[in-house]
Design goal:
Shape: elongated
Low-confidence stretches: 17-23
Largest sheet: 5 strands, antiparallel
Length: 240
C-alpha cells in the first residue's frame, strides 16, 4: 500500500504592508488651515507697517486717548485801582517750613501731621507818592534846584511763587490718613502757605531792601529832573 502524501501546512497570510512603503502622516486639514491664516495675517501686518512707514496709509487716532475739556467760566473783573507808588526794589527769598501737629501722650504713628515745604516768594519795596503833602516839593527855578520830602519806603507782603514752591515730604498718622480719606481740609495746606509768607516777609525787613529802595528812588528822581534842566535834586525820606 502506497504511502499517502503528508498534509501540507497552510500558507502564511501575506503581510499587507510588505508590498507598500511606509505611510508618512502629515498635518491635519485644520492645522494646515491655521498655518495658512497665520501666514496671511503676518503678511497683512507687515504690509500695513511698510505702507505706514512710507506715509501711504493715513494715521488713525487712539480711540481711548486722554482728553482734557476746559469748562471754566469767563473771568470777572472784581476791582480796579490806580497805583501811585514807585516799586524801587524787590527781593526773592526761599524758606523751608517744617510744620508738625501732634497730640501729647499719643504716639505719632496714630495722630501726627508733619509737612516739609519749600516756599519761594518775592517782596517788593516801594515808595508811595499818593500821600505827598503840598510842601513836599520845593522848586527854585532861578537856581534850578529841587527839594523833595518823601515817605519812608514800605514793603509788600511776600507773594509766593507756586511754580517754585513745593512740598518735599508729608507724614501722617493712622487716624489722620483715615480722616483725610473721608474729608478734604484745604485749611491745613493754607496754613503752611501763610507760615511761609510770614517768614519771608519778616526776613525781608532785615535784608536791607529798604535801603536799596531809597537809593534807587533817589537815582530815578535825579535822572528825571536832570533831563528837565535841574542841576541839583535833594531827596529826603521821612522816618519809618
Amino acid at each position: 500500500m502506497a504511502d499517502s502524501p503528508a498534509p501540507s501546512s497552510p500558507d502564511p497570510e501575506p503581510d499587507p504592508t510588505s508590498e507598500y512603503p511606509a505611510v508618512q502622516r502629515g498635518p491635519s486639514g485644520f492645522a494646515r488651515l491655521l498655518i495658512f491664516v497665520g501666514v496671511v495675517f503676518a503678511l497683512l501686518v507687515a504690509s500695513c507697517l511698510g505702507l505706514r512707514a512710507v506715509n501711504v496709509l493715513p494715521t488713525f487716532d487712539n480711540p481711548f486717548s486722554d482728553r482734557t475739556t476746559d469748562r471754566s467760566q469767563p473771568v470777572l473783573l472784581e476791582s480796579m485801582r490806580d497805583l501811585e507808588r514807585f516799586v524801587a526794589a524787590d527781593g526773592t527769598f526761599q524758606v523751608i517750613v517744617d510744620l508738625q501737629e501732634n497730640k501729647d501722650n499719643i504716639p505719632d504713628f496714630l495722630i501726627n501731621r508733619r509737612t516739609l515745604f519749600v516756599g519761594s516768594g518775592t517782596v517788593e519795596a516801594y515808595v508811595d507818592f499818593g500821600g505827598l503833602a503840598g510842601d513836599a516839593l520845593k522848586v527854585d527855578e532861578e537856581k534850578k534846584t529841587i527839594e523833595l520830602t518823601l515817605p519812608a519806603p514800605q514793603q509788600s507782603t511776600a507773594a509766593l511763587d507756586m511754580e517754585r514752591s513745593y512740598v518735599v515730604a508729608e507724614e501722617r498718622g493712622l487716624f489722620n490718613r483715615i480722616g483725610d480719606a473721608f474729608r478734604d481740609d484745604p485749611g491745613k495746606q493754607q496754613q503752611v502757605y501763610q507760615l511761609a509768607q510770614q517768614r519771608i516777609t519778616e526776613a525781608a525787613k532785615a535784608s536791607g531792601l529798604d535801603e536799596r529802595a531809597r537809593e534807587n528812588t533817589q537815582r530815578m528822581l535825579e535822572s528825571l529832573f536832570a533831563r528837565l534842566g535841574y542841576s541839583t535834586v535833594t531827596v529826603t525820606f521821612a522816618n519809618p
